[in-house]
Structure to design on (179 residues):
């Protein structure tokens, strides 16, 4: 099964996960920016990975549009985010925001926890995080999610691990047996 991992990454977490997946599946890997999109139909399986940004998955609209009418290539999506895996409700909401009911059932999707890297963050993103920290800091009464978020975004952190690629890798390996 001809497979490629295509990723978008600003601070390196998604790139790192894409490289781990590429190694494990022994397949091609490319950044979205360097990938010639017209060659997508040459692949049996495209694994698209990007970050969660303000509750949505970066670039998902474009990648879905690319697959309209593309029936021979299977799309698999993964997203990396600072939200810990245990926050299942939060993660489900992210998927519900970016996929329709039908897409939720037909596009396999996987979440991988990552972290925050202030050193590599763009000026715009750092400004958004600082503003959010200020808003939360000023709030006198906070619910547990807000308190957790305030603590989480105070500094850079890394909760990524290679083990989080296992469900996706196993899924794609199963597909390879079927196709
Ligand atoms: C402005 C901004 C907004 C973010 N919003 C979310 C979010 O809504 N949910 C989440 O889980 N992580 C969020 N994150 C964390 C990123 O998803 C995480 O750092 C991601 O792995 C970065 O991927 P990259 O290093 O490949 O660019 C946000 C990060 C930034 C800078």
């Amino acid at each position: 099964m001809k497979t490629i991992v295509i990723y978008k990454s600003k601070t390196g977490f998604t790139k790192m996960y894409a490289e781990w997946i590429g190694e494990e599946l022994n397949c091609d890997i490319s950044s979205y920016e360097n990938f010639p999109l017209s060659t997508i139909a040459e692949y049996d399986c495209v694994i698209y990975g990007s970050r969660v940004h303000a509750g949505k998955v970066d670039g998902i609209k474009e990648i879905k549009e690319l697959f309209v009418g593309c029936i021979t290539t299977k799309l698999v999506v993964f997203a990396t985010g600072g939200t810990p895996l245990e926050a299942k409700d939060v993660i489900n909401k992210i998927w519900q925001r970016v996929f329709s009911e039908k897409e939720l059932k037909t596009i396999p999707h996987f979440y991988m926890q990552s972290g925050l890297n202030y050193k590599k963050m763009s000026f715009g993103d750092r400004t958004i995080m600082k503003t959010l920290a200020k808003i939360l800091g000023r709030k006198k009464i906070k619910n547990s999610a807000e308190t957790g978020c305030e603590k989480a975004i105070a500094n850079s952190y890394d909760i990524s691990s290679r083990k989080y690629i296992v469900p996706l890798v196993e899924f794609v390996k199963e597909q390879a047996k079927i196709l």
Summary: Residues 9-15, 51-55, 80-83, 114-116, 121, 125, 128-129 surround flavin mononucleotide (CB under 6 Å). The mean pLDDT is 95. The first helix runs from residue 13 to 25.
